[in-house]
């Protein structure tokens, strides 16, 4: 009897499911046993491809392998049926999808108490039964967050969840009550002192008056304070904007930095996160 190659065999049930979901605009990926994604491909071990997604550089790398969990999710049938993915699908134990990539948010309710809370607190929407509770699906994406309440996780951007069926009910728009669950509480106590030095400068000063810099720092503080989601990204981009405008001439001092760090810490950022964002922004601009 002639043995068929992997490419000649009919597609697995999981692949058929994935292709159907992808046709409907749901980015999908395979899962191994235990509901975990397949590991990085050899070409991307240790982030060798340079494209592992972060809060600062979201999105999949250019590698066609399913190597970065949620960022491997795709709606492209050519990728899903490529030779690289063929063997992976045959080993897959389940299909997952990236809710945020489809403009969705999943509230994962993991026990009876969580379900009781949701039914009293959240607007009705489409629900999908799970082994221990339910997934409540809302139309709209937001930052993902685990353990926002006992037995409650939020899965949307930069996260994946297992496909368990289409569910029942009508999709409802993402409510503020769900968005609020992912907002970090302010850090108690005074902000920790800044240890990262301000740029020394050396370029010609572009500021017409001292109020120009003061206004820029004040606006940056307001931008960070007003962030309702994606605080990591907001802090980094704000630091980048401040350094771009004021970091080359030496007018930016540690006092100004302390104000920016303090604003970030009141939104729940740690000193380490602030320092990393500042350092990365300086490195990008070369200041």
Lay out the secondary structure.
Blueprint: H1 13-23, E1 28-32, E2 36-37, H2 77-80, H3 83-91, E3 94-97, E4 104-109, H4 112-121, E5 126-129, E6 134-139, E7 145-149, E8 152-155, E9 161-162, E10 172-173, H5 176-181, H6 210-225, H7 231-246, H8 254-266, H9 271-285
Parallel strand pairs: 6-10
Antiparallel strand pairs: 1-2, 1-3, 3-9, 4-6, 4-8, 5-6, 7-8
Can you walk me through this structure?
This protein has helices spanning 13-23, 77-80, 83-91, 112-121, 176-181, 210-225, 231-246, 254-266, 271-285; strands at 28-32, 36-37, 94-97, 104-109, 126-129, 134-139, 145-149, 152-155, 161-162, 172-173. The chain has 287 residues and is α+β, with helices and mostly antiparallel strands. Strands 4, 5, 6, 7, 8 and 10 form a 6-stranded mixed beta sheet that branches. Helix 6 (210-225) runs antiparallel to helix 7 (231-246). Mean pLDDT is 80; it is low at 1-10 and 51-60.
Low-confidence stretches: 1-10, 51-60
Q: Please trace the helix and strand order, writing H or E for each element.
A: HEEHHEEHEEEEEEHHHHH
Helical percentage: 25-40%
Strand content: 5-15%
- Total helices: the number is 9
Mean pLDDT: 80
Q: What Rg do the Cα atoms give?
A: 23 Å
For the sheet with most strands, the description reads: 6 strands, mixed
End-to-end distance, in Å?
Answer: 68 Å
Number of strands: 10
Which overall shape is indicated by the principal axes computed on the Cα atoms? globular
Structural class: alpha+beta
């Amino acid at each position: 009897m002639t043995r068929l190659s992997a490419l000649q065999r009919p597609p697995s049930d999981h692949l058929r499911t994935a292709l159907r979901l992808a046709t409907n605009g749901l980015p999908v990926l395979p899962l191994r046993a235990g509901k975990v994604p397949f590991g990085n491909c050899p070409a991307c071990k240790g982030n060798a491809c340079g494209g592992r997604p972060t809060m600062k550089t979201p999105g999949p790398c250019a590698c066609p392998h399913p190597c970065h969990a949620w960022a491997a999710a795709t709606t492209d049938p050519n990728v899903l049926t490529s030779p690289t993915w063929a063997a992976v699908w045959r080993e897959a134990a389940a299909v997952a999808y990236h809710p945020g990539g489809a403009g969705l948010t999943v509230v994962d309710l993991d026990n009876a108490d969580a379900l009781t809370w949701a039914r009293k607190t959240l607007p009705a929407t489409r629900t999908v039964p799970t082994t221990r509770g339910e997934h409540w699906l809302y139309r709209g994406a937001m930052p993902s967050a685990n353990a926002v309440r006992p037995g409650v996780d939020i899965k949307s951007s930069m996260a994946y969840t297992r496909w368990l069926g289409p569910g029942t009910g009508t999709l409802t728009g993402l409510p503020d009550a769900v968005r609020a669950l992912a907002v970090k509480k302010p850090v108690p106590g005074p902000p920790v002192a800044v240890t990262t030095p301000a740029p020394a400068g050396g370029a010609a000063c572009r500021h017409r008056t001292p109020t120009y810099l003061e206004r820029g720092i004040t606006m940056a503080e307001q931008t960070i304070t007003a962030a309702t989601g994606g605080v990591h990204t907001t802090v980094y981009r704000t630091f980048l904007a401040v350094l771009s405008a004021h970091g080359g001439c030496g007018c930016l001092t540690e006092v100004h930095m302390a104000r920016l760090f303090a604003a970030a810490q009141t939104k729940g950022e740690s000193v380490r996160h602030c320092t990393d964002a500042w350092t990365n922004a300086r490195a990008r601009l070369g200041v």
